[in-house]
UniProtKB/TrEMBL annotation:
Primary residence: mitochondrion
Keywords, alphabetical: Membrane, Mitochondrion, Mitochondrion inner membrane, Repeat, Transmembrane, Transmembrane helix, Transport
Keyword Ribonucleoprotein: no
Family listed: Belongs to the mitochondrial carrier (TC 2.A.29) family.
Solcar repeats: 4-93, 102-195, 249-339
Cited Pfam families: Mito_carr (PF00153)
GO CC terms, sorted: mitochondrial inner membrane
InterPro entries recorded: MCP_dom_sf, MCP_transmembrane, Mito_Carrier_Antiporter
Entries under PANTHER family matching the protein: RE38146P
Protein name: Mitochondrial carrier protein
Membrane topology term: Multi-pass membrane protein
Protein localization: Mitochondrion inner membrane
Length: 344
């Protein structure tokens, strides 16, 4: 285990964040819109992904689509340096394998553990990121508005008004979400890469070898999550193969399958993401009490006032953020590891 393992993981996450942050801004606004109000009573400043992008750009300017970018990049670096760095170290030590091959149980354990630890480390930046992204022009403001001039100002004010605990608001939901997501993502990435290598696919192209497993992981995750989704993916892949896509464009086959299956992954993750966003943004009231006392209290209140619909706010931008972010971060991570290994 070396410091470079963690630096490479951090750079991968930070690099991907730059491209996906606008989706995160829209997702945050959608998830805070109509907080604890019935669907009929909810104002609709943002009607969806593309309308959200338009409204934010019109009211706050185009640069507002990159609000919270600094803490988002720091969050991406901190989270992925621990998550990808720890998992890579476990891979190097052989802790994810049995008899020279990837062991699903061992890989899932280390992937989940690395995700959980990354949630603890990166939570302060996630709180700051969410609050900065939520800050908007009064005409399109949703959720509680925190008046911060930047990342440093936010860190100082949170500590002054909420204490050290303020940096770890929503940490339980965040760690659980990252543990589940990492367990599925990194385990399937390792299995997909090993499978491609064993069949001699993309052995001459390191970039393709890095890209294909990151895209294919969505298809493999679906096999674990839902048999019905597996049927859908297999039919889709067979249709593509029958039309010659497998021979001429395996990357396209991987992309289509992973994007289709990714919907199910986001269905499972969105409720926890909504809860995290709400708790991150709530802060403290003037009386010192909190709107949400914890993960389960937040879930209960959302279901009671907003219904199941409330738990799936921001589904569209979350999906469109996760898909490219997963692919970009894993490709960058794998290519940086390959580059570093060559220089050793």
């Amino acid at each position: 285990m070396s410091a470079m393992d963690f630096i490479i993981g951090g750079l991968a996450g930070a690099g991907a964040t730059i491209f996906t942050n606008p989706m995160d801004v829209v997702k945050t606004r959608l998830q805070l819109q109509g907080e604890l109000r019935s669907r009929k009573e909810q104002p609709r400043q943002y009607r969806g992904l593309f309308h959200g992008l338009y409204v934010i750009a019109k009211a706050d300017g185009v640069l507002a689509l990159q609000k919270g970018l600094t803490p988002a990049v720091v969050f991406g670096f901190c989270m992925n340096s621990v998550r990808l760095g720890t998992y890579h170290a476990a891979e190097v030590q052989g802790w994810t394998q049995s008899n020279g091959s990837v062991n699903v149980q061992k890989a899932a354990f280390w992937a989940g553990a690395s995700g959980f630890m990354s949630g603890l480390v990166a939570n302060p930046m996630s709180v700051v990121k969410t609050r900065l992204q939520a800050a908007a022009h009064p005409s399109v403001a949703v959720g509680r508005q925190h008046m911060y001039t930047g990342t440093i100002d936010a860190l100082m004010k949170i500590y002054k008004t909420e204490g050290f605990r303020g940096f770890f608001a929503g940490v339980h939901a965040s760690c659980l979400r990252l543990a589940i997501g990492s367990s599925a993502q990194l385990t399937t990435f390792s299995i997909a890469k090993e499978t491609l290598l064993s069949h001699g696919i993309s052995t001459n192209s390191r970039l393709c070898l890095a890209f294909l497993p990151s895209a294919l992981s969505g298809a493999v995750v679906s096999a674990v999550i839902c048999p019905f989704d597996v049927v859908t993916v297999r039919i889709l892949k067979e249709q593509l193969i029958a039309n010659g896509f497998c021979q001429n464009s395996p990357a396209l086959l991987a992309c289509v399958a992973s994007l289709a299956c990714g919907i199910l992954c986001v269905l499972l993750e969105t409720p926890l993401d909504v809860v995290s966003t709400r708790i991150f943004n709530q802060g403290t009231s003037s009386k010192g009490d909190l709107m949400y006392k914890g993960v389960f209290d937040c879930l209960k209140k959302i279901l009671k006032t907003e219904g199941v619909y409330g738990l799936y706010k921001g589904f569209g931008p979350l999906y469109l953020r996760i898909a490219p972010h997963t692919t970009l971060s894993l490709v960058i991570w794998d290519m940086l590891n390959i580059t570093f290994e060559k220089k050793r």
